[in-house]
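P.,

For your records, the input lines for the assembly:
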Amino acid sequence: MKFAPLLLLATVALLIALPWLVSGSMLNAAVQMLIAALFAMAFGLLCGQAGMLSFGHAAYFGVGAFAAVHAMNAFGGAGLLPTPLLPLVGGATGLISGLVAGYFSTKRTGVYFAMITLALAELLHALASHLKAVFGGEAGVSSFRMPAWGIGFGSLTDVYFLTLVWTLLCIGLLYLFSKTPLGRITLGLRENAHRLRFLGYNTHALGTLIFAISAMFAGIAGALQSMNIEAANYVVLESHISTAVVLNSFIGGVRVFLGPAIGGAVMTFFGYVTSDLTRVWLLYQGIIFVLVMMFLPRGLVGELVERLRHRSGQGVARSLGATLLRLLCLAVAAAGAVFLIEFLQRFLSSEYRAGVSEGNWPAISLFSYDWAPLSVLPWAVGLGLFGLGIALVVTVNRRVADRQEAQA
Amino acid sequence: MSDPILSLQHVHKSFGPAHIIRDANLDVLPGERHAVIGPNGAGKSTLFHLCSGQFAPSKGHILLNGREIGGLKPAEVNRRGLARSFQITNIFPGVSVFENLRLAVMRKHNLQFVFWRSAARLRQVNEEVDDLLGKIRLTDRAQTLASQLSYSEQRSLEIGMTLASDPQVILLDEPMAGMSHEETDYTAGLIREITEGRTLLIVEHDMSVVFSLAHRISVLVYGEIIATGTPEDIRGNARVKEAYLGEEAA
Ligand SMILES: Nc1ncnc2c1ncn2[C@@H]1O[C@H](COP(=O)(O)OP(=O)(O)O)[C@@H](O)[C@H]1O
Ligand SMILES: [Mg+2]
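Structure tokens returned:
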């Protein structure tokens, strides 16, 4: 079990070396990934550990983002608040707004809690478009990162390291938090708040505090975001930001410690890669979420941890083989699905529609071939690959099950 | 006679039109083991819910050490020194047995909002948890998820969590339900041991346990306490025989 610290060390080393390993645009994506990871970890504390599903975490992310921009303008990156410490402002405003919002929303649980968080976030979003002095209206508020502590903060590399240090620091703090008495009680809150009350705990105060701590880290993530782009716009308060953090965290695995961070980073990377390749990348993101929830309900990391925990000594190699085989078959099915989706997207697009004249259906070019939409071929390729992949997975699963039965 | 430590005075509880507790009067004396018996649906659990803050009484007073606790919140009642177990197992299923007990013990040490210390290094707390684990015979299961315990092990954990806060007054609602003979005997011994110097109010269906454990017994029928007395008194009470014990024997 000395494996985990080694892996962690290697990851950190890789992250430190990253600016010398990847292109500028990739490094920019890495900054986004770190921010998404931290934001998801903040959400994970509330949802995964305390069991409170917030649909309005964009509010605290956004509050932190605006606070940091205003602080950047007010202090000019010097004096009491030099540039590297600006995320503290995001954290403080996140904490305070989290205390207020948490006080009200944690009076309820479950669906009602979720609805209150959603309503509060929408309220802030609606207000933001009117409060031009604070939120800058359509244009938003912009600023400049100033040099401090002998660092320029003009280059992407500087921003990357600023983001990296803060993200690692916060994740480290969240880890330590999970080991403290309050961190343990957080799990009790998720598992059975009713019983906690009968043990003498003030569950409303506890819930409010956890909510505020989660909002504080969300605020730090927001501050890092606005420092990165040197601006904040009330778009950061929109509900799709709240949704994204929910989806990312669940894809990674909201109950395992690093699950949300991995989910946030992976899905941000996925968006970075696919948004250039396809117009329907949000559709793919949605499909991934549905598939993960259906087949890996613990999330990617959660499932991995579970597998590792229940591995049987000799079966590792064999189950690894079966898993690789499954992944291969799934890749075939995915290729078919992607083909179909892309083909349909082009077929149904308004540009294509405009090009269709009576009885004349122009060919659709996809993956460097031109396909006649009325012929069987493209549909056969897509459906065929998809069907083949699924059939193969089913066969592999059956074989594995048979073998396990034979062993038992 | 010393003043009662827990006193119910003309307590009523109704849910809408249903009068579940009707004018219940009960004095529990300091240091005694007091059992409440009665047929199913008589309102025994409801009585416990009223004493522990789950429900507020519709009418009447509930006094703990002479101070009103009727209508207080569960956490407040607990802090005044009354802890309870539940008839329907009420634990933290997704965390380990050790963690379940630690949650119960930490509160006693006022570790509620503490985020600057490591829980693993709370020596006193962890020792107390180990001690409790031994008492409820779950030491081997310390790292098991509570949800994976057998039913009777969960019942033991339920009792352990109730004891953990070191209460003055303990309310146990059918603690032995679902336990084997051996487990019941052991648990009866454990309850006897841990309630030394405390006050116990217990609901239990196993009459041999009730009659051997309790100093005094109260009989609850249709939300009314129809008799209170020593085991001998209760055994000889005609009304009780008619309403409850006779029914059991028949
Ligand atoms: N929350 C409630 N709302 C309505 N009726 C209830 C409620 N709780 C208990 N009752 C009713 O009160 C009666 C007594 O229940 P309970 O106290 O659980 O009995 P006992 O523990 O003696 O078996 C039952 O008829 C039950 O249906
Ligand atoms: Mg009952």
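Two observations worth noting. The mean pLDDT of chain B is 90. Residues 151-164 of chain B form the longest helix (14 residues).

Regards
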